[in-house]
Amino acid sequence: MAKITLSNLAHSYFPKPTSEEDWALKEMNHVWNDGEAYALLGASGCGKSTLLNIISGLLEPSEGQILFGDTDVTHMTTTERNIAQVFQFPVVYDTMTVRENLAFPLKNRGAPADYIRQRVQTIGQMIGMEVELDHRARGLTADAKQKISLGRGMVREDVNAILFDEPLTVIDPHMKWALRTQLKELHQQFGHTMIYVTHDQTEALTFADKVVVMYDGRVVQMGTPEELFETPEHTFVGYFIGSPGMNVLRARVEGRRAALDNGEIGLAGAYPALDGKVEIGVRPEFVRLTDAPDGLPVNVRRVEDVGRHKIVRADYFGSPINVIVPEGHEIGADMTRVLFDPAHVNVYQNDWRVAPTGQEAA
């Protein structure tokens, strides 16, 4: 296992990049701790697979270094880096049994037969295929083959890291939760450094100790699920994490007040006068539908009952606002205003979160 350090790392697929848009990965500096589970989360094309391929050694970065512990592995092959990788589509040997597929990485490294037998039995049990260990892989479902791929990626105990590139894409939805749970249990049991690439926030939030959110070739935030929810450092994080995502409204912010199109709200902290694109962000969970006259007037378009709560879809002078109403709370016809919880309103300047000064406005 290894701590992974990305030092001044950047990559372009162009031989001579001339503008910021030419860089698939903008310069980044990060330390990923030994033994933690990370999820690389972002929309298609944001750079997450490029970053994973650089970490694995399938791609050499245009600039910067990658260190495993204190060792510079930037120019090392995947084999030299001693990592395991599980890809989006299952890679199994159809002519081999499940047992032989799982044992293959260990046999290649000359592990003792008794250890191979014990280890394969353990992994077979963990992926729920103990009964099928002596069945040939040919004819198994795509779900079963991907479970073999997952097991083969985790069968070695001596790897520096295990990398997963959208490994549950081909898995039926009802199986995904069980496999995510098994991966989490395996991580807790064996303590490997794990990096899991996905565009699915549910996968990321349920698997990872820390989620690495990428947008336009940058890591815009690395944090726990709670940190991503409570204090999104970039408007994209607020939009991408949560269902529905964070409400974002243009505003003029100064001191402890934010002036909107036709109203004003209080803020929990004080801010200097901000220029550029200034916005406030508040999650639907911290918006309350009300008939109180001090609320912001909204036009309620529809109400969606999703069982555990209701989602009110409204707009405020052309800007959409979503409100989550807890189960059992009535929504009256005269409730056409909203109130924001000041403690959960974030302020953004040019898409990046601005921290309050904590001092009273002059």
UniProtKB/TrEMBL annotation:
<dbReference type="InterPro" id="IPR003439">
    <property type="entry name" value="ABC_transporter-like_ATP-bd"/>
</dbReference>
<keyword id="KW-0813">Transport</keyword>
<keyword id="KW-0547">Nucleotide-binding</keyword>
<dbReference type="InterPro" id="IPR003593">
    <property type="entry name" value="AAA+_ATPase"/>
</dbReference>
<keyword id="KW-1003">Cell membrane</keyword>
<dbReference type="GO" id="GO:0016887">
    <property type="term" value="F:ATP hydrolysis activity"/>
</dbReference>
<dbReference type="GO" id="GO:0055052">
    <property type="term" value="C:ATP-binding cassette (ABC) transporter complex, substrate-binding subunit-containing"/>
</dbReference>
<dbReference type="InterPro" id="IPR015853">
    <property type="entry name" value="ABC_transpr_FbpC"/>
</dbReference>
<dbReference type="InterPro" id="IPR008995">
    <property type="entry name" value="Mo/tungstate-bd_C_term_dom"/>
</dbReference>
<dbReference type="GO" id="GO:0015408">
    <property type="term" value="F:ABC-type ferric iron transporter activity"/>
</dbReference>
<dbReference type="Pfam" id="PF00005">
    <property type="entry name" value="ABC_tran"/>
</dbReference>
<keyword id="KW-0472">Membrane</keyword>
<dbReference type="InterPro" id="IPR012340">
    <property type="entry name" value="NA-bd_OB-fold"/>
</dbReference>
<dbReference type="GO" id="GO:0005524">
    <property type="term" value="F:ATP binding"/>
</dbReference>
<dbReference type="InterPro" id="IPR047641">
    <property type="entry name" value="ABC_transpr_MalK/UgpC-like"/>
</dbReference>
<comment type="similarity">
    <text>Belongs to the ABC transporter superfamily.</text>
</comment>
<dbReference type="InterPro" id="IPR027417">
    <property type="entry name" value="P-loop_NTPase"/>
</dbReference>
<feature type="domain" description="ABC transporter">
    <location>
        <begin position="4"/>
        <end position="241"/>
    </location>
</feature>
<protein>
    <submittedName>
        <fullName>Carbohydrate ABC transporter ATP-binding protein, CUT1 family</fullName>
    </submittedName>
</protein>
<keyword id="KW-0067">ATP-binding</keyword>
